[in-house]
Write a structure and sequence with these properties.
This protein is an alpha+beta fold and 190 residues long. It is 22% helix and 49% strand.
């Protein structure tokens, strides 16, 4: 199976989106509710490394490959424009495909604030902390009823690395591998 480079870029965007979801979880009750999309610009080196281990990445469900990466629809969440705290809940996901097995992660929740994480659901209904989010270079732009949260880097968490290693029999330590950068475009529904 051939991996599309734009898909890989999208994977990186997903990671950033996950970071945004983490920010939303720390929001005060009066924070704006939202919709929109998150774009994951995948890290091509990490995608190449996975491919060399026999693992390809595909979009799943409502996720789509766009010109700047993988696009995940934002279906709910909260955003505090004063602090940047965000919790973003998405539809769609990614499937990691090996020779005879696969791992699908979906419905990402990005949280930025007290904890900067990207959580995902597995097809069996269990939850997984897929990525940690680096928000040191976080940027927030607002204009009218729209906001953009960007410059969030997603790296594979300890539990995310363990899930991939166990599913595909990978001996290498994947923790900390950069998934990509996330940019979330928010439509504020006050």
């Amino acid at each position: 199976m051939k991996t599309d480079k734009s898909f890989l870029r999208a994977l990186g965007s997903l990671a950033a989106l996950i970071g945004l979801v983490g920010l939303l979880a720390a929001m005060p009750a009066n924070a704006a509710k939202l919709s929109g999309k998150t774009i994951l610009a995948p890290n091509s080196e990490s995608l190449d490394a996975l491919a060399s281990l026999g693992v390809e990445v595909e979009v799943y469900g409502k996720a789509k490959v766009g010109g700047n990466g993988v696009v995940f629809p934002l279906v709910s969440g909260k955003f505090d424009p004063e602090t940047g705290a965000t919790k973003a809940v998405h539809k769609g996901g990614l499937t990691f495909v090996g020779t005879d097995t696969e791992l699908t992660v979906e419905n990402f929740v990005v949280k930025i604030g007290d904890k900067n994480v990207l959580k995902a659901s597995l097809l069996d209904g269990s939850k997984l902390r897929l990525a940690d989010l680096d928000t040191k270079k976080l940027k927030i732009k607002e204009k009218g009823e729209k906001a953009v949260v960007s410059n969030v880097t997603a790296t594979l968490s300890k539990k995310g690395a363990k899930a991939l290693s166990e599913t595909f029999g990978i001996d290498e330590d994947l923790q900390g591998a950069e998934l990509g950068t996330i940019k979330t475009k928010i439509d504020l529904n006050l």
